[in-house]
Write a structure and sequence with these properties.
It is a single chain. This protein has helices at 9-20, 37-52, 97-113, 139-144, 150-154, 164-174, 201-204, 243-257, 297-314, 335-347, 363-366, 393-411, and strands spanning 56-59, 65-69, 79-84, 121-126, 190-196, 209-215, 217-226, 230-231, 266-268, 272-275, 281-282, 285-294, 319-328, 331-332, 352-357, 372-377. Helix 1 (9-20) packs across helix 12 (393-411) and helix 3 (97-113) packs across helix 12 (393-411). The chain has 413 residues and is of the alpha+beta class. The chain binds glyoxylic acid (GLV) and manganese (II) ion (2 copies).
């Protein structure tokens, strides 16, 4: 039996159902934010499945979780596959989790089919990909790749003021795993990440596999406006320094400045915090987030300049500042891996199309360490970052079949 034949659709689907109970929401999604009790529970569950199969489980100083199946050559660098187990606050059951479970299913299939590989194959669950609780996102893979500094990341606070270092310590206490020595990061020979598409193209074109060629660049910002708290009933308009009104003027101008003719630029204000948050006090401070993405870094650069100009122009009579918290340049995947994914998809007689990724993924960091690529499968109506996110057991299994075949080739390179 070949490795692809040993992929078990029922097992892979059941594992998604088991994981979906951890942080499960009434609408059928999950709220399993990074380094929460629910995140710890998912680590423990994956760890228990891994240990039951005799795979080695370990973690590193930023909490990335590794499940390793040894190869025959003790000196050969590993190949890796995985994604993330943290979710958006109103997240779905498949974003990230599919990539982790597909990688784990690949390890199990290799084991079941008795396939040996020269290189070790490692399944990984990266810490804090979503970046909804702690910013920046894709943190675990960025630290692993040396793109973000470990000590700096450990000091990051969530919106409640909880320091990441403390949340990580709690998580690792609740979900213990042997700690790898030293700073995060070890040499890799290849990386492939499976993920739901999170957009509608595969479904619209009736294709099963997306051969991912690239990931668009993304930048995140925090804008803060400072006004003056005042009585809502007595303060005349001319005397007001309304921090929310200033934020609103900026937001309006920003939406206009980021509306491009070909609908390629992505601009989102996803979080607004108005302080002190009282109905009858004029807001003294407003903080909002910006997430902006485009395949061309020069376009992002030009629009960043516009955002800064808008903040400066629209603040008065308040004061305001814009801070860039993340910049991830566009990623082009290694043609060797992209071609291999396409070739294996063809061999398995699955319909497919080449496509760039609109969403960010951990692969964008790991692509700087070794040849890397991604495999997409469809999700219902392209809906993601939503509790109703859905995918079919057949498509998930098809992606895992492609994945295991790609991994076998990479691991015997
Ligand atoms: C990841 O979830 C992203 O925001 O692209
Ligand atoms: Mn994801
Ligand atoms: Mn996501």
């Amino acid at each position: 039996m070949g490795a692809a034949d040993a992929i078990r659709e029922d097992r892979l689907w059941q594992r998604h159902a088991d994981m979906a109970k951890l942080g499960g929401t009434p609408k059928g999604g999950v709220n399993r934010q990074a380094l929460s009790a629910e995140d710890a529970a998912s680590r423990n569950l994956l760890g228990s499945w891994a240990r039951a199969r005799g795979f080695a489980v370990s973690t590193d100083a930023i909490g990335n979780l590794f499940v390793r199946r040894e190869g025959t050559d003790p000196k050969a660098l590993p190949v890796m596959s995985g994604s993330h187990m943290d979710s958006q606050p109103t997240g779905g059951r498949f974003d990230g989790m599919y990539g982790v479970l597909a990688a784990f299913e690949a390890l199990e299939a290799l084991e079941d089919a008795g396939v040996t590989t020269r290189r070790p194959v490692v399944a990984v669950a990266w810490t804090n990909e979503e970046g909804s609780r702690f910013q920046p996102g894709a943190m675990g893979s960025a630290v692993f790749a040396g793109h973000n500094d470990l000590d700096e990341m450990l000091q990051v606070k969530d919106w409640k003021g909880i320091v990441l270092k403390d949340a990580l310590a709690e998580t690792l206490k609740a979900a213990p795993a042997p700690m790898l020595d030293g700073r995060p990061g070890f040499p890799l020979d290849g990386y492939v990440e499976a993920h739901i598409e999170q957009g509608p193209r595969l479904e619209n074109e009736n294709k099963t596999i997306g051969v991912v060629t690239a990931i668009q660049g993304s930048r995140r910002y925090i804008v803060t406006t400072h006004g003056e708290e005042a009585h809502a009933g007595t303060t005349p308009r001319a005397a007001r320094k309304d921090a929310f009104a200033a934020a609103l003027r900026m937001a309006q101008a920003m939406y206009e400045a980021t509306t491009d003719d070909d609908d390629t630029l992505r601009f989102t204000i996803g979080r607004v915090e108005v302080a002190p948050g009282s109905p009858n006090t004029v807001p003294g401070q407003t903080v909002f987030t910006i997430d902006m993405r485009h395949p061309d870094d020069a376009v992002l650069e030009a629009h960043e300049k516009k955002l800064k100009e808008i903040v400066a122009a629209k603040a008065a009579p308040c004061s305001a500042g814009i801070e860039r918290v993340t910049v991830v340049p566009p990623t082009n995947f290694d043609p060797m891996v992209v071609d291999l994914v396409r070739a294996k998809t063809n061999e398995l007689q699955l319909s497919h199309m080449d496509m760039p990724s609109g969403a960010g993924h951990d692969a964008m960091h790991i692509a700087h360490l070794c040849p890397a690529g991604m495999i997409f499968v469809p999700c219902e109506r392209g809906i993601s970052h939503n509790e109703i996110e859905n995918a079919t057991p057949q498509d998930l299994a098809a992606g895992a079949r492609v994945l295991v075949e790609v991994l076998v080739d990479l691991a015997n390179r």
